[in-house]
Amino acid sequence: MVKILPVNRKIIRKLLKFGLEKKWEKQLKLLENNPRYPGLNLELMEPKNMGVYSFRIDRKFRALLFFRNQKTVEILNITVHYQ
Predict the structure, then answer these.
(1) SS3 state at 58
(2) 51 near 66, Cβ under 8 Å?
(3) Cβ contact 19:12 at 8 Å
(4) Long-range contacts of range 66-74, CB-CB < 8 Å, 24 or more positions apart?
(5) 3-state secondary structure (DSSP) of residue 61
(6) Which of 19, 45, 70, 75 pairs with 52 at a CA distance of 20 to 30 A?
(7) pLDDT tens-place string over residues 6-32
């Protein structure tokens, strides 16, 4: 299990604005219990040496995160995922 640090107000406002609260809670539980869960679609972003990952909230939105260590995760932002 990993510990997820509290998110900032900017992220909370985005979640409320786009109605993502339930999806967010579900994905956070999956991330907390198993970061490698296939439904998260966790991927290392470019440039890879920066260590920033993203995971899927839904088909349109992704969250950017950083592993502070193997047991602690900091959510950096929520972005629109262009395909």
Answers:
(1) coil
(2) yes
(3) no
(4) 67/2, 68/5, 70/2, 71/1, 71/2, 71/3, 72/2, 72/3, 72/5, 73/2, 73/3, 73/4, 73/5, 73/31, 73/35, 74/5
(5) strand
(6) 19
(7) 999 999 999 999 999 999 999 999 999
Q: Contact 60/40 with Cβ under 8 angstroms?
A: no
Nearest to 37 by CA among 56, 50, 51, 22: 56
Does residue 10 sit in helix, strand or coil?
Answer: helix
Contact 77, 64 (CB under 8 A): yes
Tokens of 38: 């296939």
The DSSP result for 13-28, as a single string, is HHHHHTT-HHHHHHHH
* Average pLDDT estimate for 64-69: 95
